[in-house]
Amino acid sequence: MEEIIKLFTGSGTASTLLFLSLTGMVGIALGRVKVGGVGLGIAGVLFIGLIAGHFGARVDEHVLHFVKEFGLILFIYSIGLEVGPRFVSSLRNNGLKINLLAAALVLMGVACAVILKFTFNIDTHVIVGILCGAVTNTPSLGAAQQVIAEQIPNSGALTQQTGMAYAIAYPIGVIGIIITMLLIRAFFKISVKDERERYQRELAGLSGQPEAVNLEIVNQALVGQTVGFMRKTLDGEFALSRMCRRGNFFMPEDKEILQLGDRLYGVSTADKFDDLRLKVGPLQETGEVEITGRLGMEHIVFTNKKLAGKTIKQIGVSRRFPVNITRIFRAGVEFIATEDDTVEFGDTIRIVGERARLKEVATFLGDSNETLAHPNIIPIMLGILAGVLIGSIPIAIPGLPAPAKLGLAGGPLVVALYLGHKGRISKLSFYMTPSANLFIRELGIVLFLACVGLSAGGGFVNAITNGGYIWLLYGAVITFLPVLAVGLIARFMKINYLTISGLLAGAMTDPPALEFANSQISGQAQSTAYATVYPLTMFLRVLTAQIMTLTLLG
User: Nearest-CA neighbor of 344 among 433, 415, 418?
Assistant: First the structure.
């Protein structure tokens, strides 16, 4: 019993891990409690950490610092891998627009802090800490403290006060973003379900999601041609699943000759319908109908590592078996399969063909849950290693006493976005199963927030009662005004609400806000927007904190 008591009263590694576990467990439970349909979510861990720290939880600061940084790396890296496949396309669509909005939000926050400093004569080291906390950006705090330490001799007390100002303003930063999301949602009477459907339609193209259709061959230019010729002619517009001739369904080979009145069943998108009517003939929407008889349909998980990264044409499924690949599902996105599309490890493929051969096709393509669930540890560790190295590269900015860096958050994110986009490098696949990705992400953010709360909780209440409560008001101004302004502007620009939520969370580099945005409804829009603006925002946060500190101290 004495040894157990020592765990709660000591400050060693075991005691630190004990308090981290308790903080995470109780914080998650608190976050699930909802009042009026709104809960703290993952931010509950932060507040439980503050409470535990206030009541004397003793922790090893060195262990706490390591766990906090490692948790942040895990969280950011998993986000990058998840949104990587859609990152480049999001930049082409509205990435420039939302990055400009995010940059405006950063600069508005700095402007608010500068105005507050000169209006109320706030010490520089205090207002910089309030700014970093109000925008929930830890790397900028570290950068500002480094500048203070280099510019002012024996500045230990000042840097500690900067950290305290950060801790006091941080909660209002988290809450402020969440409240802003709710205000925008209520003001514009937004249905998050409708917004998700609109986002999915935009992601899939002008038409929205792929739709099952059938075409009747009346174009004489196709009559007498082979199915193989038709596939090449309509590749990218129509994916053939099966044919019907005089009421009989069958799976055609490429050498099958097309006849007048044949009906082609497959998948297309609405923006291609008019072209298909001109090239083939009358088009009807088939809808999701059950395939009966000797033909069948299966969803197969692609786990054949030897074939991963090859195109559908190179794999040659239709040449080997009487089946067709009609759709590919990857990272939450569904698209029509074309001959030039690559198939990656973990993709789900819809095949239609001879029912008796479907199991054989599944074996050929993998369809192994055991293989899919096997952890891909080496690529993950390699990615984190590269992220840490890139994040540590100094970027010299003229006039600054210390070079700016992407840091332990920005570096892993940039690498993860690239690896998620590429999917593989040579024989290394960077695919991570959704369940594994979610586990790593949740573990990372819980560790990070628990550490922040425990480290700041000791002096939190004392600082507030001794005048620090005014810092909360300053932080609220820095948080609310820029976030609300940019959120309203973005909505008036007709930007999707889910994208706005991710934009605001990313522009504030706020993982708890992203978790809240994701909790409103499942989808990829929030994380994609978050990761799209995060790299630029992180760099600007660190850079502006250094410039502001250096300028105002001088």
Answer: 433
Rg value, the chain, Cα: 28
| Residue 126 resides in a domain | no
Long-range CB contact pairs, 23-29, < 8 A, 24+ = 23/48, 23/49, 23/52, 23/57, 23/450, 23/453, 23/454, 24/446, 24/447, 24/450, 27/446, 27/449, 27/450, 27/453, 28/446
| pLDDT > 70 fraction of the chain, expressed in percent and rounded | 87
Dist CA 285 CA 291 (whole Å): 15
Residues 6+ positions from 223 with CB-CB distance below 8 Å:
217, 258, 259, 260
What's the total number of domains in the chain? 1
Where residue 424 falls (left for φ over 0; alpha for ψ -120 to 50; beta otherwise) is beta
C-beta separation of 479 from 176 below 8 A: yes
At 534, give phi and psi (nearest 5°).
-60, -50
Q: Point out the least confidently predicted range of 139-143, 160-164, 362-366.
A: 139-143
Which residues 6+ apart lie within 8 Å of 448 measured at CB?
A: 68, 71, 72, 75, 511
Structure-block tokens of residue 266:
């497959």
Q: Report whether 309 contacts 423 (CB < 8 A).
A: yes
Q: Which of 268, 318, 324, 316 is nearest to 298 (CA)?
A: 324
The two three-digit tokens of residue 337, written as one number: 């399969």
Q: Which residue has the higher pLDDT, 83 or 486?
A: 486
CA 63 to centroid of chain Cα atoms: 28
**Residue 248 bridge partners (DSSP):** 245
Strand partners for 426: none
Please answer whether residues 40 and 47 qualify as being in contact, where contact means their C-beta atoms are separated by less than 8 angstroms: yes
Dump strand ranges (E) for 233-354: 239-245, 248-250, 263-268, 283-285, 295-301, 323-330, 333-336, 348-354
> What 3-state class would DSSP assign to 257?
strand
Read off the pLDDT band of 79 (50, 70, 90). confident
- Give the phi and the psi of residue 342 in degrees, each rounded to 5: -85, 150
Look at 91 and 164; give whichever has higher pLDDT.
164
Q: Which domain holds residue 262?
A: 206-372
Is 151 inside a domain boundary?
no
CATH number at residue 251: 3.30.70.1450
Classify residue 470: in a domain, yes or no: no
Helix axes 497-507, 156-187, angle to 10 degrees: 170
Strand ordering across the sheet containing 239-245: 248-250, 239-245, 263-268, 211-216, 283-285
Query: Do the Cβ atoms of 340 and 311 come closer than 8 Å?
Result: yes
Condensed to tens digits (0 to 9), the pLDDT of residues 441-482 reads: 889 888 887 887 887 777 777 777 777 789 989 999 999 999
Q: What are the C-alpha distances in Å from 148 to residues 106, 153, 154, 329, 545?
A: 21, 9, 10, 51, 11
Please write the tens of the pLDDT for every residue from 242-264.
888 888 888 888 889 999 999 99
| Residue 304 lies inside a defined structural domain of this protein | yes
Sequence letter at residue 359: K
Q: Cα separation of 497 and 523, whole Å?
A: 12
Burial 54-73 (b: 16+ CB within 10 A, else e): beebebbeebbeebbbbbbb
